[in-house]
Amino acid sequence: MGFYLPYTLLYVLAGLIAELIMAKFRYGNSKGVCVSYIVMQVLGAIGGTIYPYVIAYNSFFSDAEAMAAQGANQNVLAAANMIQS
């Protein structure tokens, strides 16, 4: 594993949010643990999957339409446009 900044920053943010949630619900409450876990997983997914794909779309696929016109990367272009919208 390496140091991936968006993933790391969003996990730190999720930890802070989880601490605030746990402080509000009291630390022994299972509802607070459940909500905190959901926050951690959502922000982890955004930082580890969705956000990097948007970065890749903007940088690597800037000329993807020209490549798709040639018949290459049509599936990748369709998936990128679906996520970007």
Number of strands: 0
| Percent of residues in beta strands | under 5%
Gross morphology is: elongated
Q: How much is the average pLDDT?
A: 80
Largest sheet: none
Helical fraction equals over 70%
Characterize the structure shown.
This protein is mainly α and 85 residues long. It contains 4 helices and no strands. α1 runs antiparallel to α2.
Considering the chains and any ligands shown, give keywords for the structure:
85 residues, 4 helices, elongated, single chain
Give a quick precis of the structure.
By secondary structure, the protein is mostly helical. Helices cover 81% and strands 0% of the residues.
Topology, element by element:
Blueprint: H1 5-25, H2 30-60, H3 64-69, H4 74-84
Helix pairs in contact: 1-2
